[in-house]
């Protein structure tokens, strides 16, 4: 932040430096400062898409839902042909439980960028959550994984859809391979343990949970991991922007 302040002293009209300052405040949880700075950016430059997106995130993290929605809609308006604002709007709708609206926005994102891995992953997640057209959900997850394997989450979604289609042995083998490729993603091991339990294989389930405990964040290591990730999916996490 000190470097950004130096840049602003040298170039006080730099909208990008000011936006970066707001984003840095957001990244360290200094939400009031982030909101103040980002509001200043969009007041001066109402077409600054990234500032609107980060302002929406700051409002959302502050529990200011209506303002978060208004800000992300302004981001969409500022760049109607870009995929990322629609993806962000989809995530906001997802977090509010408005799944039909979320699906529509993810489709809008793909219409603008057919290589948007995050949007395919979210669509797969939505369909798995609703137990809706699981074959399509799997196709979307595989497409996301093809575009950007990331930390294995797309591969896990594909395997979960397969498991729900009752191709359980194949799903377990597929997820085991994904977990081995991304061993530090403890949620993969948790899901694998869940699957082994459903198959009645308590020995392998225990081993999978052991790997989950090894790689889980410190605050989770003393918890019963087996109860932590039983649901087939969840709402997008705070790092949703990383998928964009």
Give the biggest sheet: none
pLDDT average, as an integer? Answer: 89
Our measurement of the CA-to-CA distance between the termini, rounded to an integer number of angstroms, reads 25 Å
Oligomer: single chain
* Gross morphology: elongated
Number of helices: 13
Work out the strand percent.
under 5%
- What's the β-strand tally? 0
- Give me the strand/helix succession: HHHHHHHHHHHHH
Poorly predicted runs of 5 or more residues: 228-235, 237-244
* Structural class by helix and strand composition: mainly alpha
Summarize, please.
With 244 residues, the chain is mainly alpha-helical. Helix content is 70%, strand content 0%.
Describe the structure.
By secondary structure, this protein is mainly α. The chain has a domain at 183-229. Helix content is 70%, strand content 0%. It has 13 helices and no strands. It has helices spanning 2-10, 15-27, 31-44, 49-61, 65-78, 83-95, 99-112, 117-129, 134-147, 153-164, 168-181, 186-198, 202-215. Helix 3 packs antiparallel against helix 4 (49-61), helix 7 packs antiparallel against helix 8 and helix 12 (186-198) packs antiparallel against helix 13. It is elongated, with a radius of gyration of 20 Å. The two termini are 25 Å apart.
């Amino acid at each position: 932040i000190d470097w950004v302040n130096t840049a602003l002293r040298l170039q006080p009209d730099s909208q990008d430096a000011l936006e970066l300052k707001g984003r840095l405040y957001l990244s360290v949880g200094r939400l009031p400062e982030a909101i103040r700075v980002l509001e200043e950016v969009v007041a001066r430059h109402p077409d600054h898409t990234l500032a609107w997106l980060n302002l929406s995130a700051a409002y959302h993290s502050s529990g200011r839902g209506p303002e978060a929605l208004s800000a992300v809609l302004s981001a969409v308006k500022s760049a109607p042909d870009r995929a990322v604002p629609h993806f962000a709007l989809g995530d906001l709708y997802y977090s509010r439980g408005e799944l039909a609206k979320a699906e529509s926005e993810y489709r809008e994102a793909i219409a603008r960028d057919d290589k948007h891995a995050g949007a395919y992953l979210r669509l797969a997640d939505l369909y798995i959550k609703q137990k809706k057209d699981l074959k399509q959900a799997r196709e979307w997850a595989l497409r996301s994984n093809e575009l950007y394997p990331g930390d294995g989450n797309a591969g896990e979604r594909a395997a979960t859809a397969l498991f729900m289609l009752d191709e359980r042995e194949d799903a377990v083998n597929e997820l085991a391979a994904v977990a081995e490729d991304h061993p530090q993603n403890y949620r993969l091991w948790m899901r694998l343990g869940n699957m082994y339990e459903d198959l009645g294989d308590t020995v392998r389930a225990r081993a999978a949970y052991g790997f989950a405990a090894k790689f889980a964040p410190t605050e989770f290591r003393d918890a019963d991991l087996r109860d932590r990730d039983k649901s087939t999916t969840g709402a997008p996490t705070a790092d949703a922007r990383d998928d964009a």
